[in-house]
Amino acid sequence: QSVLTQPPSASGTPGQRVTISCSGTSSNVGINTINWYQQFPGRAPKLLISKDYQRPSGVPDRFSGSRSGTSASLSISGLRSEDEADYYCAAWYESLNGPVFGGGTKLTVL
Amino acid sequence: EVQLVESGGGLVKPGGSLRLSCAASGFTFSRYSMNWVRQAPGKGLEWVSSISSSGSYIYHADSVKGRFTISRDNAKDSLYLQMNSLRADDTAVYYCAREGSGEDFDYWGQGTLVSVSS
Q: B91 forms bridges with which residues in the sheet?
């Protein structure tokens, strides 16, 4: 069982806006920023969103992130078939001296 | 171009040992904290270990504490993970990852598979 809670699946049709949630506690999401990772089958994860909402170079602005209280969300607008992947949130956890990850959300583009 | 290339994975019996390596290039290795993250087959990501840029600070997840040891050689631009007393639930793809400024992992290797089975 993951420390951060994500829905196991999400779906949308091309062009739609999809939001994936990530909830934690006051010990992780409540006090530390959230990072989001995208992973395609058989591939390494890729940093998608850093520090709640910052997009690394090369990440399309269709991807956006936000955080409020002990919850965070990743939104994908103008959904494309190539967005079909697994998405993981992560937050630093002081007691661990390392990050905790959500269980991941499998996004399906219908 | 930043590159992280893991090696050393394979099949090992329960109780056995394995040493993973991660060769870094394309950046000043000695300036970055580095991490190992694993992913069991069909499962999510799990942070395993981290080491500061100088090697002075080392942390391990509770699940591997006392069995795994992270280390680095800045002269060789390399990261290591010594895994002892391996168990079946250590079976996973192990990724090395560079720690960026936002306590994020901004670059990942392609991963190396460790299978623990009799």
A: none
